[in-house]
Please model this.
Amino acid sequence: MKLLSRRHDLVCQQVVELVTDYLEGSLSRSDRRRFEAHLRACPNCTAYLEQMRVTIATTGSLVPEDLSPEARQEFTELFHRWRQDDA
Amino acid sequence: MCVLTHERNPRAGGMPAEKRRPSRHRTGAGAPTLRSVDSDADLLARLRAGDEDAFVTLVGRYNGSLLRLARAYVPSDAVAEEAVQDTWMGVVRGVDRFEGRSSFKTWLFRILLNRARTAGVREPRSVPLTDDEPAVDPTRFTTAGAWAEPLQPWEADADDRLVASTWTTTLLQALDGLPPRQREIVVLRDVEGLPSEDVCTVLGITEGNQRVLLHRGRSKLRTMLETELATRGR
Model:
């Protein structure tokens, strides 16, 4: 957590560094209030937060690369060998 | 260990290779991808009963993330592949002892991390935290710290465009381009969706360190997507 000055409103450059703390719910109550107050007044930072959310969602929607047929074959053989060793 | 009832025959219908194809594309609701068809728990149950298809499906599901993580620890791709193969061996041999207290994913990544650390040379557990890695290029702000130029909101269809299959490659490359410590956190949290506490346990780091690394990794991915969206046109 960053040490924020209590006396001033947050500026955009600080807000972008607090986005993850905000999304993780780790801002103190007063810092969260200041963060949200800034968002209400700042369409740019509101857009930025939305972009971060889209980024996270996009990363989360990655579909695993397909195994190559050779890899499938190899893992199938390994599977049987490992189970045999076990028995 | 044949106490399981097979509600579905894994081989019914055949053609597993062809059926995998459409799963690359994340289509809307109602079009299940392979990933959503069988839960990990289902596959584990079938794996215990000796079902090779269930095993290979699990491998297909997690091998990419395992490799991505292993590479953060070991000097070469070959060693990473070895560590990942060792991990799958650990799964096959340990599945009867897996009690399900943690999720399969957490168990799996814990095995990997143990193997990778044994095989690896890098072990920087303490993360040097400096402020020289801003989330956004400082030149985009005025001296007073406000955005110098209005930020282009991503249009409503940005989501759709971003999840389109063409983005997969770009995003995976960006992920592989992240510094190793950031990459492992982003893979575990955002790609695999592990809870924060599990990630801290598996990696042996504090919540604070995790947040810093997650922040830097996500910020870089956002920058990359922003650049791509601008390049490809709106």
Q: What stands out?
A: DSSP finds four helices and no strands in chain A. Chain A has a mean pLDDT of 88. The radius of gyration of chain A is 23 Å.
